[in-house]
Amino acid sequence: MKIAYYPGCSLHATAKEFDLSTRAVCAALSVELAEIEDWNCCGATAAHALSDALAIGLAGRNLALAAQQNMKDLLAPCAACFGRLKYAAKALGAGRGELPESLDAQAAAGVKVRNILDVLLNVVGVERIKQQVSKPISGLRPAAYYGCFLVRPPEIAEFDDPENPTSMEQILEAVGAQPVEWHHRVECCGGSLAVTNTASAVRLVGEILAHAKSAGANCVAVACPMCQTNLDTRQAAAATRLGGELDLPVVYITELVGLAFGIEPAKLGLRRHMVDAMRLTRIAFSKPAELAATGG
Amino acid sequence: MRFLRSNRSFTADLGFEDEVARRSGENIAACYQCAKCTAGCPMAPDMDLTPSQVMRWVQLGLRDMALTASSIWLCTNCTTCTTRCPRDIDLARVMDALRAIALESRVKPAEPQTPLFYRIFLRLVRRRGRQNELPLMAAYGLMTRNPFKDLLLGQRMFLKGKLNPFGPKVRNIEQVARIFEQASSSASAPASQRE
Amino acid sequence: MRRVGVFVCWCGTNIAKTVDVQKVAAEAARLPGVVYATDYRYVCSEPGQKIVRDAIGEHNLDAVVVAACSPAMHEATFQRCIADAGLNPYVFQMANIREQCSWVHSDRELATAKALDQTAIAVGAAAKGKPLMRSEIPITKRALIIGGGIAGIQAALDIADAGYQVALVERQPSIGGRMAQFDKTFPTMDCSACILTPKMVDAARHPNIALHTWSEVESVSGYVGNFEVTIRKRARSVNLEKCTGCGICEEKCPSKVPSEFDAGLGMRRAVFRPFPQAVPNVPVIDRENCRYFKTGKCGICAKLCPAEAVDYDQGDELLKEKFGAVVVATGCDLYDPARMGEYGGGRFADVITGEQFERLVNVGGPTDGHIVRPSDHREPKTVVFIQCVGSRDDTKGYPYCSRVCCMYTAKHAILVKEKLPDAQVYIFYMDIRAAGKNYEEFVRRAQEELGVKYLRGRVSRIYPEGDKLRVKGADSLAGVAVEIDADLVVLATALRARDDVAEVARMLSIQTDQYGFFAEAHPKLRPVENLFAGIYLAGACQYPRDIPDTVAAASAAAAKVCVLFSRDSILSEPMIAEVNQARCSGCLTCEEVCPFDAIEATVITDMFTREKRTVAKVNEAVCQGCGGCVAACRSAALNLRGFTDEQVLAGMEALCRE
After folding, report:
1. Percent of chain B with pLDDT over 90
2. DSSP state for residue C446 in the 8-state scheme
3. Which residues pair with C463 in a beta bridge?
4. Contact across the interface for B156 and A94, Cβ inside 8 Å
């Protein structure tokens, strides 16, 4: 099946691993990703923080292009882009905001925007994923971290449960991992202020990672570039502030799924993390390869 | 109504609540100050006014208190408040509206580096249609007089191939420019009610 | 030729300030059919009514129009007045030139012209009015009470004490309802069971009360004074007469099931009494969870019962009985904490509901009255109460206030401090609603004497931190976010309508509001009656309330029933629908449309063709005169007496006069 692909600015740069691993995993699952021609930045936080109209326009253009290019389903792996695109789709559908005259706002409103978890779970399905697993990652105990935009606000994201989501855990269990039970899965990491208010971000990162660690996790699984960059690059500072060690590799869920599919770690981008993630390859397959029906 | 503090008397602007309500499309009067937003806000410990206090000053009509608060710039837009507000108020959208009003009224932002960052970001998007960390961080560092911020980190990321000095540019950049044009002409148009 | 009299009221300045009433009277005198018209300051007063009566006699009036306030105010007053003067009360029309004119307009000229138009319509309708007679409906003086909580019990006792027969139907194995679950009651801290059980026993032993527990009302048809009801007495599987209440069966039963009475905190057996003071003190077998009924094995209770009272072959019993009145006292249910994901959604063992706390602190409860954490049975050192969970909530709950939580949370806090004096207690609240007698003083006791810390704000989320629960809340008075590490958290959950209210409402032909609470006839002036004559409401099924208000409502409903039963028959309301059978095509659309099931099909012999055909027939005792059938009838065969099509059209013609 074919789906429009909106990488967003970060997937071509700071979140290269997310792009690499998503493409590799989708290829393995026979999901054809057609990158939208001439896509632009969705506007992220900067646009909507200063102008609602700009936010709708910038994000909406991409939806209109997807529609123009005859695609009705769109995958935006970046959770922030996902949120902004869905917001724009709803706004345009309700008659709010506008697009340049050459673009069709109503067609834009009709594009179905999905995040990577939605595609894996609801388009591909857990059974198909299980079939593709050749090296179950049963040595990994990921703390599934959703962050903000995958599930909030519920009337925009329309995905999973905003307080107690389970989609990531379902996927992780399907590939053999043992996701831990912990309670900071939807807490904000402060990613959007990581540059302008670094100290606050460091505090929030520390709280999240400390709880992941005390829950017994040996890595953190994410599906958002802002979260990954923040939890990865600010981890050292957070550990210093807490006066202890954190040392938790923060990886995209698609990297973990790719590992379980037997794809080469370097091809997934595992070398590109600040907190070393390659060591996961040494422990990931250490338990006997038996697909557990439910994780720990 | 007059507020008596700081050895002075400030007159309430009872129309401010309506203005914010129209800009944000939210029912400000419905806020009954339960403070659930404050309770769940990850940045509340760093703010000078709690989120519910910001709402209260809007309700009471003291513009300056609300617009000069650090709160509106420290908000991460995590929408925890929006998701849990029992009166169904999208507080994140109210914060958006307050930010827009603050900038339009040329109120000096309590955290100036944040709107600065957003402006640099959007300038880049306007020129190239896409965002790029290298020029973004460079410009930000310069303008905040902190050119060495995150320099080491930047170096490491560059070496891991995560920074792209020559990012691609959107071909139909005129369309992007038109979007900016349309947005600025509707700048003070009120947002319609939430669906 | 009609002789209509018109009386235009000043209503002091209420009407006269905006409407030129003298002009209206003068113009009305010239309307066709009017032989006398006058104005007066207060027509409803004694002298005013005398003017009306005298005018009827002097001018030989045969129809009367009063242009004054709303018929809802004084139609009955004037109907009685003209009846005293010898006229049929139904040749009366009222023009509302107050609520519908002088009170909503300010332009004197326009308002006066409108008042005259309104009067003209009334005159037109009056001219076509016919005298109507009321008929007598006999009353069966037996009351059915659905629901055996304190509301049902109180109503039953009051009606039975007045000398009438009562059937009290309760779906649980025992009467007692919610009060049986409580420990102490505010503001007196009376032990709930101690004040309830005497009433339960009275109800069971009263010669005029027939108690049906483990039973449900299955169908209700008929009308005021003449309801036909089917009651299903479900099979207890235990013989009521033989059982001695010794409890051996319960003790030895191997099947354990979460106890509904203990709100899931404890277990009960498949053969069980919900609580030790159950009335009747006879267990029932929950056949869905009984090993014998599921697999054919076991049968221990039957073997061990010394009175040989266990009867697996017992079947349901259907009773068909007639009643004159029905009191609905079905109570309410509670908000499911699973809906509030940020508080754990019911998954954290030490986050419990107020109902569960009542059972915890009750000596008859699963922990013998010791306040301990459900997870590890340790005594809590820090207890946090959260009010308004699911109440005053537009998104995850109900917008209304549940009324009792402020008081019972204060009560819970006081109980904690009494049993665990060293515990620190916090209460997160939004407002304190303590409007009853001695209620404010009760809350102050918690705050001032016992050191309970009240924090004004909601809680955003609760999560486990170590073996404690981290509560992230706020105090809006100090303007700060707060964090408390609690050992036990108690949620004061909203009171809500039961899940089956739609079916019950349909069965009884009564209405519910948008939340599922049963609707009263008038929110202020008729709080315990329903619009459907003969059905009365009592207790929390109508809206959330505490014990004193519930008991008051129950007695009020009982009083209304006694009023109904004080006569042998009642007079029907004559402004009801009637079928012109000659015109009726027998399509029976009216039967479908009628919300009160007041229309049925009947077979007549056609006058002309001498053939049998089906037509509609109105049950005059049930019809409430809503007019829905009249509007739906395609053949214009239905008309509303006292508000006929002819009267309406005559009013319109009068309005369109030159």
Report:
1. 67
2. I
3. C470
4. no
B20 and B59 part of one domain: yes
Interface test with C, best of B26, B38, B46, B71 (most C CBs within 10 A): B38
Chain A interface includes B142 (CB < 8 A): no
Give the tens place of pLDDT for each residue, B24-47.
Answer: 999 999 999 999 999 999 999 999
Query: Which residue in chain A has the smallest CA separation from B23?
Result: A52
ipTM of this complex prediction, to 2 decimal places:
0.90
- pLDDT score of C95 more than 90: yes
For residues C626-640, average pLDDT: 94
Domains annotated on chain A, with CATH: 2-117 (no CATH), 131-283 (3.40.50.11810)
C118 and C12 in a single domain? The answer is yes
Residues C479 and C514 in one domain: no
Residues C322 and C369 in one domain: no
Residues β-bridged to residue C481: C474
Task: Tokens 């700081």: give the residue.
Answer: B6
Q: Rounded CA gap, C146 and C329, in Å?
A: 6
Interface contact B133-A44, CB threshold 8 A: no
Range of the structural domain that residue C558 is part of: 142-171+194-330+510-565
Rounded-to-10 torsion of CA B19, B24, B28, B33 = -130
Tens-place pLDDT, residues C23-37: 999 999 999 999 999
Q: What's the token pair of residue B60?
A: 């009471």
Chain A nearest-CA residue for C340: A163
In a domain, C646, yes or no: no
**Whether residue C460 is found in the same domain as residue C480:** yes
% of chain A surpassing 90 pLDDT? 91
Hey, what amino acid is at C277? Q
Structure-token pair, residue A34? 């057609």
Residue-level pLDDT at A293: 42
At C186 the pLDDT is 96
pLDDT in tens, C234-251: 999 999 999 999 999 999
**pLDDT range class, residue C338, cuts 50, 70, 90:** very high
pLDDT in tens, A218-244: 999 999 999 999 999 999 999 999 999
pLDDT of residue B187: 56
Mean pLDDT, rounded, for C107-132: 94
C203: exposed, middle or buried (Cβ count in 10 Å: 0-12, 13-18, 19+): buried
Residues 11-70, chain B, touching A (beta carbon < 8 A):
42-43, 46
Tell me, yes or no, whether B34 and B52 share the same domain.
yes
As a whole number of angstroms, the distance between CA A78 and CA A230 comes to: 14
| pTM for the whole structure | 0.88
Residue A166 and residue A123: Cα distance in Å, rounded?
Answer: 16
Domain final residue, candidates B69, B104, B139: B104
∠ CA B57-B63-B66, nearest 5°, is: 55
Tell me how far apart the alpha carbons of residues A79 and A156 are, in angstroms, rounded to a whole number. Answer: 12
- Interchain proximity B38–C395, CB inside 8 Å: no
| C460 contacts in chain A (CB < 8 Å) | none
Query: Chain C closest CA to A164's CA: distance in Å?
Result: 7
Q: Quick one: pLDDT band at residue B134, thresholds 50, 70, 90?
A: confident
- Which of B87, B104, B121 terminates a domain? The answer is B104
10 Å Cβ neighbour count for C546? 17
Selecting from B77, B140, B175 the residue whose C-beta is nearest the C-beta of A192 gives B77
For residues C178 and C333, give the distance between their C-alpha atoms in angstroms, rounded to a whole number: 10
Domain range for B171 is: 113-185
Count of domains forming chain B: 2
Strand partners of residue C272: C284
- For chain C, give the number of residues: 658
Tell me, yes or no, whether B15 and B95 share the same domain: yes
* Distance from C-alpha of A200 to C-alpha of A184, rounded to nearest angstrom: 17
Same domain for B93 and B25: yes
Q: How far is A257 from chain B (nearest CA, A)?
A: 21
